Structures are given as structure tokens and as C-alpha cells.
Amino acid sequence: QVQLVESGGGLVQAGGSLRLSCAASGTILRINVMGWYRQAPGKQRELVATITRDESTNYADSVKGRFTISRDNTKNTVYLQMNSLKSEDTAVYYCNARDYVWSILSWGQGTQVTVSS
Known about the structure:
Blueprint: E1 2-7, E2 10-13, E3 18-26, E4 33-39, E5 46-51, E6 57-59, E7 67-72, E8 77-82, E9 91-98, E10 104-107, E11 111-116
Parallel strand pairs: 2-11
Antiparallel strand pairs: 1-3, 3-8, 4-5, 4-9, 5-6, 7-8, 9-10, 9-11
């Protein structure tokens, strides 16, 4: 099994920055893709960004140019650097791990990001 623990959320003013971290443990070798998703109140969970083990990345259009996903395979950790934050970025952010056929291995517990305008 894979366990994911997120950290780094908080309250920030619009235009500010935050860095989220997600540490994986357990059956690490099964993990290919790690990603960040978010869910705002009353909305469905949506993709923010993903990164494969060989560091191929994908971003939602709404965060391109503002957010950067990266991973450190030696620390089994994925990061999400969020810059130029907007009030519409307010959500609970979840980390996700998938295997080599993109099946979901695990979700983290979520970390709240609140952007005040």
C-alpha cells in the first residue's frame, strides 16, 4: 500500500505564494504518476497538475504559468509551488499517486489553501 501525507497549506493574500508538499511511503516502487487535485466548496474535485516518474508534467489551464509541480524521487516527495495566487485557487488540495497503468494507488488527506482578496 501507498500512504500520502500533504503539508504546506494555509492562508495567503491574493498575489502571494505557497508551496505544498506530499510525502509518499509504503510501496513506493509502484508509483509512476503523482498529482495534485483540488476541491472547492460546492464543486467537483479537479486536476491541478501531474508529474510522472520521468518528470513529464501536465497542468490545468487555470494554473499554467503560475503553478509548478516537481518531485524528488530520492525523498519520495512531490511539491506544488503556487505563485500569483488568486481567490479562485481557494480549495482543499489533495495529493494523488497512480501506478504505471494510471490506476489510483492512494489519496492524501488534503490540505486547505485559502487565498484572501
